[in-house]
Structure formats: C-alpha cells, structure tokens
Amino acid sequence: MGKLELAGKRRLTAQKESAGILVSAGWWGLSIGLFAAIWELAWATGLANPLVLPPPHVFLSGISYQAKFFDPSMRMGNPTGLQVASSFVLTVTYTLLRVIAGLAVAFAMSMLVGVLIRYFRIFGRLTFPIINTLAPISPIAWLPIAIFAFGVGNVAAVFLVVITLFFIMTIATVNQIDRVGQTPINVARTMGASRFQIFTNVIVPSILPSLFTVLRLNVFAAWMIVLIAELIGIGNGLGQVIMISRNTFNAELTILAMAVVGVVGYALDAVLRVVQRKCLYWNSTNV
User: Fold this and answer.
1) Are both 8 and 107 inside the same structural domain?
2) Which of 9, 58, 74, 173 is deepest in the core (most CB within 10 A)?
3) What confidence category does residue 170 fall into, taking pLDDT thresholds of 50, 70 and 90?
C-alpha cells in the first residue's frame, strides 16, 4: 500500500509540473504575441520606421535569407537549406557553450573561494578586500587583458565571463554564509557534528537556494559579456552576426540575432529553474 501511495504522489507531482510548464508556455506565447501585435501596429500606423525596426512579419519571412549571414562562407553563392540550418545551429551553439562554460567555472570558483574566505580568517582578510575592489570593473576593461593573455578564441571569451561574474558571485556567497542563522549551527554542534559536517549539512543547504537565484540572474550578464567578446572578434558566434548586421546596416539580421539571443536565454533560464527544483528538493520556495 505504501508503494502504491508513493507512486500516486509521484504521478500527481509529475502532472502538476507538466501543467505548470504548459501554463508558463501559454503565458509566454501570449506575452510574445502581444508584443508582436503592438510592434505591427506601430509599423502600420507609421510610428516605426521599417528600415530601422522591421516588423515581425518582415524579418520572419526573410529568416532563410538572413540565416546565411550566420556563416561568412555562405554569404555568396546558393547554399542548401540544410547547410544554412546547420550553420545557424552551430553559430548559436558556439555562443551558448561559451556562456555555459563561463557560468559553470565562475559558480564553482566563487563557491570555493567564498567558503575559504569565511572558514579561514587570514585567507579572507588577504583576499576579500581585493575581490571587492575588482568587482566593479567592467568586462570591457578586461577585454585587452583577455586578448593579451589568451589571444583570440574561446578561452578569451570564457575568461571574460568568469572574471566578470566570479567577484560578484563570491561576494554573494560570503553574504549568504553570513546570513545563515546560528541556531541550526548550534544544534548541529550539540549533536556532535564536525566542522565539515556542519558545512555540508547546514551551510551548503542553506546558501544554495539563494546562490542558484544569483546564478540565474547572472545568466543574462553572461550573455551580454559573450556577445561583447564576439563583437570585437573573439571567435564566431551571435556577437559576430550582430557586428555583420551593423557593418551592412541590415536591421532584419540585427532583429533576428536579438530574437535568437532572447529565446535561447529564456530557454537556458527555464532549464536552470528545472535543475534548481530537482537539486534543491528541500526548498519549497523554488520558482
């Protein structure tokens, strides 16, 4: 009977999650549709210049042509639909992988350094002031350093994401550790928990929900940083596509690249929300 009840609860939970996904997708589609309708109305009434802000029906109808610009080798000639689609997917994948790699490295490093700062007093006093000093520096200022150190390529783009997000996420980690109440720590000590056990069973479960939220917020910052890196020529990707659209005054290509960035960024945030719910199952406030 217990197994049947457990299976029923799991099935009910899965159904609720599926319904929640459908509802979210419906509201997302309604929001995008409303935005597109307002845009089309602005074009129809002459408020929006189609040369600068082409309406959705214009740039969507030209996707097959504009997608050729995602691969410089396909701008001339007559590539097949499969070639255009593959170059489109590869370009988006290059940018996405740089974002994910930078986020993963920055998250892991900030967790480690944040814990070391609070658990080892001398280390914290030596490192935390310089971390606070370097945190406000813009990624654009780090750009020459990235090129000097790593050249033009994927490593430089990932480095920019890491160096920009690491300091901010380290400060967030330290602040979250400081906000953990003394009551659960004292209870764990009373029960004979070691310092390591307190860290793994009290500190980490307490700070991870907030750190996941910080990580999700920094997804958008990571996108901006990678696009900046690609705009100045660090590897191919969506940033390079935007640069091409600027040089050729191709507003349709600009809007298409922006739309791709928005959709992929939203999808990545949705994936992180699912990971957050699955990994932080003890936290009832996950959204």
Assistant:
1) no
2) 173
3) very high
